[in-house]
């Protein structure tokens, strides 16, 4: 086969990778988390397939219902939510499920009950679906508290108590990015094999980036620290280059780029949205966990996101996350001490 590249015969699939982590964990690991992650992988493959053919089989457009946030549900949102609930319940590994699409938490019946709770946004960035822009699934996983049978209290816990978190981005390829608390790895779906293959081992976010990602259409509502911080990026001291602006408006895609290229993603609270827009449990926590595990920082501007104790499952939270030095600059503006 001269000139032709031979295929690798030692491919690392997501399951193989998580299993090898489990071997390292020794006696503590039961294999339950691996099985739960297998269920999540299956849902991501299903959603990826349907996102790809959505236009052809009339899956885009409205499903004619509104979700708990008062937003119109798309057909793909409904489908993605259903597959996740069904698959996670059937895995036998979950006790409590929280979905962006459902007002109440789902408490799994005894027959299928396991030891984990999954909080998720089945299809985030849904306002982008019809335009074919990248969208994604975001998830966070808690282990139920010792002695608990699985109640809402098992998910009203700080993000620092999550045991795993990740997202799958549906774009030109499907990319699943995962942390189990031991760094961050990225896997790309090989559609022919039907497997997520390790393509981005040990993702480390650069300590400083050159990109900022905010919806500046909200600038008239922004509080002074945010306005001043953004001005410092656009009008840096002479000799320094201004930052580039990139805002897709799909959290998974904006965070994915931030993890790989560095820089900062922000959705602050402002005069109109008192707590910001993004949801704490299934948007801010998983992304903050991934960011910190990749060496970055995630803050509300005044406190570490992962330290927040949620009081309700759909609560919102201001978010700034990304490269360590960039996020530290924002914190300086919040403390009133200027910036870089
Ligand atoms: P969407 O409304 O399209 O579902 O929280 C959802 C989210 O998208 C995020 O994915 C995204 O980062 C943000 O909202 C975009 O909000 P704006 O349109 O207000 O910028």
UniProtKB/TrEMBL annotation:
GO biological process: fructose 1,6-bisphosphate metabolic process; fructose 6-phosphate metabolic process; fructose metabolic process; gluconeogenesis; sucrose biosynthetic process
Record localization: Cytoplasm
Catalytic activity field: beta-D-fructose 1,6-bisphosphate + H2O = beta-D-fructose 6-phosphate + phosphate
Assigned EC number: 3.1.3.11
Classification via InterPro entries: FBPase_C_dom, FBPase_class-1, FBPase_N, FBPtase, Fructose_bisphosphatase_AS
Protein family per UniProt: Belongs to the FBPase class 1 family.
Known partners and oligomeric status: Homotetramer.
Designated name of the protein: Fructose-1,6-bisphosphatase
Record organism: Fibroporia radiculosa
């Amino acid at each position: 086969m001269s000139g032709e590249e031979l295929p690798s015969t030692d491919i690392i699939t997501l399951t193989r990778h998580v299993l090898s982590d489990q071997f390292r964990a020794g006696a503590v690991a039961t294999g339950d988390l691996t099985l739960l992650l297998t269920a999540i992988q299956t849902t991501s493959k299903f959603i990826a397939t349907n996102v790809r053919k959505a236009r052809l089989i009339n899956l885009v457009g409205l499903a004619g219902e509104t979700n708990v946030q008062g937003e119109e549900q798309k057909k793909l949102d409904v489908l993605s939510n259903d597959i996740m609930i069904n698959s996670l319940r059937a895995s036998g590994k979950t006790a409590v499920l929280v979905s962006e699409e459902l007002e109440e938490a789902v408490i799994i019946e005894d027959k299928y009950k396991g030891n984990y709770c999954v909080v998720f946004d089945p299809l985030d960035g849904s306002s982008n679906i019809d335009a074919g822009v990248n969208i994604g699934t975001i998830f966070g996983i808690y282990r139920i508290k010792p002695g608990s049978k699985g109640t809402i209290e098992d998910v009203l816990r700080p993000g620092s108590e999550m045991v795993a978190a990740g997202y799958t981005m549906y774009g030109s390829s499907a990319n699943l990015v995962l942390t189990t608390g031991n760094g961050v790895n990225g896997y790309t779906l090989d559609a022919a094999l039907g497997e997520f293959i390790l393509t981005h081992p040990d993702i480390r976010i650069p300590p400083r980036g050159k990109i900022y990602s905010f919806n500046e259409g909200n600038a008239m509502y922004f509080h002074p620290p945010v306005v001043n911080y953004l001005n410092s990026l656009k009008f840096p001291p002479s000799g320094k280059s201004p930052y580039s602006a990139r805002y897709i408006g799909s959290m998974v895609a904006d965070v994915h780029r931030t993890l790989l290229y560095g820089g900062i993603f922000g959705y602050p609270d402002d005069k109109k949205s008192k707590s910001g827009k993004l949801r704490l449990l299934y948007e801010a926590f998983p992304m903050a966990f991934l960011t910190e595990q990749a060496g970055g920082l995630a803050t509300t501007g005044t406190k570490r996101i992962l330290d927040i104790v949620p009081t309700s499952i759909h609560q919102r939270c201001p978010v700034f996350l990304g490269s360590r030095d960039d996020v530290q600059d924002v914190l300086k503006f919040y403390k009133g001490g200027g910036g870089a």
